[in-house]
Design brief:
Helix content: 25-40%
Shape: globular
GO cellular component, one term: membrane
Number of helices: 10
CATH superfamily: P-loop containing nucleotide triphosphate hydrolases
Number of strands: 10
Bound molecules: adenosine-5'-triphosphate
Protein name: Phosphonate ABC transporter, ATP-binding protein
GO molecular function: ABC-type phosphonate transporter activity; ATP binding; ATP hydrolysis activity
Pfam family, one: ABC_tran
Keywords: ATP-binding, Cell inner membrane, Cell membrane, Membrane, Nucleotide-binding, Translocase, Transport
CATH topology: Rossmann fold
Length: 272
């Protein structure tokens, strides 16, 4: 279904992604972990065609993604929706209009200029917001919502595209543990109920273990681990994060715990 071969992205002499190879044969929840700068975002951006690869190939259901041009490329970007750490909503725009912006690629310039949305799209947007548990906020400005609610609006906007794949670039890195859990459960539910593939860059081991079917570990642009959550032992994690014997699982945890002992993220651990 997804085949990645020798995928490489160089920025000058630096290989952000270095000969990445893996394949996925069914829709699943795939987590990509690794310390800051490992190449996780660059991979998602190549898959979504926001960044061009230097070499290699990526095919999805037989579609040669990296060679798509024009309308075909835009169609792929609709099939492959992306959500981001900072939500990327229009803060002063109401929630339902933000969600409706997920249909932009199939609307005319005229309709876009005057913010005209077909009635059925508006109903569909509200149905999706209901599914996300935030329909009562539909008329509020996006900036009035909490981070967790804003991320669910961003997921709703992605679902408006009816994508085959959702790419989530550190979707919970800006959220408190409670909201992080709600957002991860939402992504898991979208995978299980709709059969969509979810690929999520994650900073925390326990999140990857808990929600993903398979985990890829990256270090310096290379895949250094590819396996099940059960195979992701502390020793393996130490390899991925490049930490020494003092590496502690706690340092990569977002578990809800005593507020007096806030959990450090892996990013914090890696840069500490
Ligand atoms: N536009 C760019 N120009 C130059 N170098 C870049 C660019 N984008 C990324 N890089 C470099 O590529 C490498 C991988 O970056 P990338 O953002 O993919 O890592 P990451 O694992 O997603 O890290 P983070 O978790 O901090 O986002 C880093 O060394 C980064 O500095």
């Amino acid at each position: 279904m997804l085949v990645v071969e020798n995928l490489t992205k160089r920025f000058g002499r630096n290989a952000a992604v270095d000969s990445m190879n893996f394949s996925v044969d069914r829709p699943m929840m795939l987590g990509i972990i690794g310390r800051s700068g490992a190449g996780k975002s660059t991979f998602l951006r190549m898959m979504n065609r926001m960044t061009d690869a230097t070499q290699g190939s990526l095919t999805f259901e037989g579609r040669d993604v990296l060679t798509l041009r024009g309308r075909e490329r835009r169609n792929w970007q609709a099939d492959c929706a992306m959500i981001f750490q900072q939500f990327n909503l229009v803060p002063r725009m109401d929630v339902v209009s933000n969600v409706l912006h997920g249909t932009l690629n199939r609307r005319s310039t005229f309709a876009t200029m005057f913010n005209l949305f077909p009635r059925e799209d508006i109903h569909h947007a509200i149905d999706i917001l209901e599914r996300m548990g935030i329909a009562e906020h539909a008329a509020k400005r996006a900036e009035a919502l909490s981070g967790g609610q804003q991320q669910r609006v961003a997921i709703a906007r992605a679902l408006m595209q009816d994508p085959k794949v959702i790419l989530a670039d550190e979707p919970i890195a800006s959220l408190d543990p409670m909201n992080a859990q709600i957002v991860m459960e939402t992504l898991r539910r979208i995978h299980e109920e709709d059969g969509r593939m979810v690929i999520a860059n994650l900073h925390t081991l326990d999140t990857a273990r808990r929600y993903c079917d398979r985990v890829i570990g990256m270090r310096d642009g290379r895949i250094v681990f590819d396996g099940t959550p059960a195979q992701l032992t502390t020793g393996v994690a130490r390899d991925i994060y490049g930490a020494d014997d003092s590496f502690s699982e706690d340092a990569t945890s977002t578990e809800i715990r005593d507020a007096a002992r806030p959990a450090l993220t892996a990013r914090a651990a890696a840069t500490a």
